[in-house]
Amino acid sequence: AEVMKAKSISELAKLSAISAELAALNAERWAEFRVPFTPGEARPAIFGFNGDVYQGLAARDRFGTADFTEAQKTLRILSGLYGVLRPLDLILAYRLEMGTRLATERGANLYQWWDGRITDLLRADLAESPGAPVVINLASTEYFTAVQPHRLAARVISPRFEDTDARGQRKVVSFYAKRARGELAAWLIAHRARTPKALLGFDAAGYRYDQASSSPDQPVFVRSFADRG
Fold it and tell me: Do 145 and 205 belong to one domain?
């Protein structure tokens, strides 16, 4: 945060590839950023992001008290600023994507800044969880690159989402795949899923498991053109 506070509006615009107007807003946020903060200044992490994945998750509309409790146990959010967040952890508004080439005392980018610490935090969570250690990876490549899978000591399952077009051709459509990752996270929480096999029952938003195209650690879910709505 201190490194970002020292950046000018033009530097923030270039660093994050955003408009001058948006950079000015973020410069103001960084200037006001301080720890500790009061609850009135912050919001739960699960409500702090509004990208496609979080629109698919739709926690504000879908979750009841028991769902938030489940999410706090089982869902983790990767963050360029905070590292690893639980859904109800309080955060201040910020913009710092994991792929940002921000030079710090630890290196030339945030991957070097975090190094193995994100992996260590996830390992600690897994060690406290009952059953075999399994991670359902619903993060983008940009964010999951901050994790060192070989050090997780866990099975990593990375679902793939494909959509069928009007000609019957199947492919990953980035916008739909992002929404689907959020849909799957919400589905796993709602169904209190505890095993990799349970994951295969995912059927929200028109997607269905395609066994023929899947591998054990990359289940493929397909949606027909008609089911896309």
Answer: yes
**Does residue 131 share a domain with residue 199?**
yes
> Which range of residues forms the domain containing residue 29?
1-33
Structure tokens at 55: 């629109």
Number of domains in the chain: 2
Whole-angstrom distance, CA of residue 149 vs CA of residue 139: 13
Four-CA torsion 133, 143, 2, 44, nearest 10 degrees: -70
Residue 130 lies in a domain: yes
| Contact partners, residue 66, CB within 8 Å, separation at least 6 | none
102-146 confidence digits (pLDDT tens): 999 999 999 999 999 999 999 999 999 888 899 999 999 999 999
Residue-wise pLDDT for 171-200, tens only, equals 999 999 999 999 999 999 999 999 999 999
> Residue ranges of the alpha helices (H) in the chain?
2-5, 9-16, 20-32, 52-57, 59-62, 65-74, 110-114, 117-127, 141-144, 149-152, 174-190, 196-199
Say if 38 falls within a structural domain: no
Question: 23 and 56, same structural domain?
Answer: no
Q: What is the DSSP string of 56-83?
A: HH-HHHH--HHHHHHHHHH--EEETTTE
pTM for this prediction:
0.93
